[in-house]
Amino acid sequence: MSKVELYAAIRRDHRGGMTMGEIERKYNVSWRTVRRAVDSVWPEPRKKLPPRPTALDPYKAVIDGILRADLDAPRKQRHTVTRLFHRLVEEHGADVSYQMVRRYVADRKPRILVESGKAPLEAFFGDVNVRLAGELVTCYLFSFRLSYSGKAVHRVFASCGQEAFFEGHVHALRTLGGVPRSKVRYDNLKAAVARVLGLSRARVETDRWIAFKSHFGLESFYCRPGIDGAHEKGGVEGQIGYFRRNHFTPVPEVASLSELNELVEQWDQHDGRRRIGSRPRTIDEYFEVERPLLMPLPEEPFETGRVFTPRVDRYSQIAVRTNRYSVPVRLIGKRVRVMLHASHLVVYHKNVEVARHERLIAKGSCRLELDHYLEALIRKPGAFPGATALEQARSAGKFTPVHDAWWAAAVKAHGDTEGTRALIEVLLMARHIPYEYLVVGLATALRAGALTADAVALEARKAAQTEDEPGPATSSALATGQPPATVTFLHEWKLNHLPPDTRPLPSVTPYDQLLRRRASGGDHREGEAQ
Predict the structure, then answer these.
(1) Among positive and negative, which fits the CA dihedral 7, 12, 13, 19?
(2) Which residues are CB-contacts of 128 (< 8 A; sequence separation ≥ 6)?
(3) Are residues 281 and 291 in contact, defined by beta-carbon separation less than 8 angstroms?
(4) N or C: which end of the chain has fewer CB within 10 A?
């Protein structure tokens, strides 16, 4: 089995009650492996081995010197990999292969460009490290700065792609309340520039960027590539450095990007009250002079997301860029429409939203929603305990200890299959009953020993009704999170809530006439017999 399957098996046995020593002997692994499997669903990535010595090592300094000399050489008279290889063999007697030289140059040449300061820089994005939900990740800080006042607007995104580039502009223009009349300086960002034409300012722009500029009325001004244009965007680069040093040090710890962006907005407001250098007035005071000169925003919104049309695979997942996301199982084999935004994505089928996910930051990751698999799991409840979607729901806090306790009690009362199926029926109710009321219903039913889905549904609805019309006793109980453990069966609740019957009571008086006629008819026949 693979390492992921080994971890899943160890976690399953550990939940089943096996000790660490028994698991070690069963799978012939060390206690460290068992501990790592219990602590995490995913194995740790394998450490990269140190590079092995090669025959090219003595000549790497020579190659670096040639590449650095090429920085100042005419563009059409620089060394190709083939020319480098021949010089190493002819002038230095190197016993190396062409592929070895090509791989080293492909890796080393971009680094030499960065070290020399001639590599293109991203003026509007700067990378920042953030501890997101307990994990240290790299995000991207978008900055939009007005030159006269120094007023800057920032936004943090999971990526620095075109979606983030557009959404950062929309947020900045809405925050400023208008569109600058003068040109906006840009570096050679891939989100805006398809091709740089020589060393001039001419660019071949992307189609979506042209449409975006036309919608908002922006005019672009591109800095020169290389060292000649380094001084043309110093204001925004310095602003990113200032913001990163003063607000991202120490590393902020947040639960989500939306929470971080709320902090960023507060920091922007705080920075508006500072003075730049020896200026006599603050940034906000200068911006009040600049604000009336802004052009009004367009009334119609611009769709910043990108559209994809993937097909749902047999695992009820879709591939978007380098990551995978779940959709409802009824869509297996069908093609859906995905609107990818900078921080989230929305999945549509026949113009109806069927799924919404937060965009993953790491490449090659997978995000599964437990609700998408419930129709399949209710038919095969044995697959529920080991489902990856369940592990992700538990890690995200959506599958709480209350769920686990009710599930364990239901399994003990009804058996593994029926108890798990009852839990899945409760999870299906979350599509119609708010999540917080469903958790209250689970807790109340658990304390009362009512281990059926109907009992949980009834208690959840009672909690919702109590929230709508709170009394002194019930409101205090909900505030403490301890609702009264009283359960009424569903059929009794229905009988007690029938509408009043206003019909009159039945009477047998009209039937007395039939009795008198029958008696008179009997007397007549008796006289004839005499």
Answers:
(1) positive
(2) 138, 139, 140, 141, 156, 244, 248
(3) no
(4) C
* CA distance linking residue 205 with residue 196, whole number of Å: 9
Mean pLDDT for all residues in the chain:
82
Which run of H or E residues covers position 143?
Answer: strand 135-145
Measured between its terminal Cα atoms, the distance across the chain in Å is: 106
**pLDDT, tens only, 124-183:** 678 888 888 888 888 889 888 887 788 899 999 988 888 888 999 999 999 999 888 777
Structure tokens, 378:
């209710």
Give the residue carrying structure tokens 């080393």: 108
Rounded-to-integer distance, Cα 478 and Cα 323, Å? 41
Full 3-state SS string of 320-382: ECCEEEECCHHHCCCECEEEECCCEEEEEECCEEEEEEECCCCCCCEECCHHHHHHHHHHCHH
430 secondary structure, DSSP code: T
What span, in angstroms and rounded, lies between the C-alpha atoms of 319 and 326?
9
Neighbouring CB atoms inside 10 A of 370's CB total: 23
CA torsion 105-107-109-110 (nearest 10°) is: 160
Task: Check if the beta carbon of residue 222 is closer than 8 Å to that of residue 190.
Answer: no
- Checking phi first, is residue 134 left (phi over 0); if not, alpha (psi -120 to 50) or beta? left
CB 381, CB 417: distance < 8 Å? yes
What is the distance between the alpha carbons of residues 104 and 56, in angstroms, rounded to a whole number? 9
Contact 219, 184 (CB under 8 A): yes
What is the rounded distance in angstroms from the CA atom of residue 79 to the CA atom of residue 407? Answer: 69
- Cα gap 318→38, rounded to integer Å: 29
Amino acid identity for residue 182 in this structure: S
The token pair at 428 is: 């299906």
The whole-angstrom distance between residue 121's C-alpha and the CA centroid of its chain comes to 28
Give the chain's radius of gyration (CA, Å). Answer: 35
Segment 414-424 shows an average pLDDT of: 92
| pLDDT tens digits for range 22-47 | 989 999 999 888 988 888 877 777 77
Integer Cα distance of 316 and 282 in angstroms:
55
Q: Which DSSP string corresponds to 179-207?
A: B-SS-EEE---TTTEEEE-TTSS-EEE-H
Query: What's the full length of the chain, in residues?
Result: 530
Confidence class for position 516, pLDDT limits 50, 70, 90: low
Maximal C-alpha separation, the chain: 154
Task: Identify the burial level of 240 via C-beta atoms within 10 angstroms of its C-beta, where 0-12 means exposed, 13-18 middle and 19 or more buried.
Answer: buried
- On whether the CB atoms of residues 187 and 265 are closer than 8 A, the answer is no
Look up tokens 């929230």; give the residue: 467
Say if pTM beats, i.e. exceeds, 0.70: no
Specify the amino acid at residue 380: K
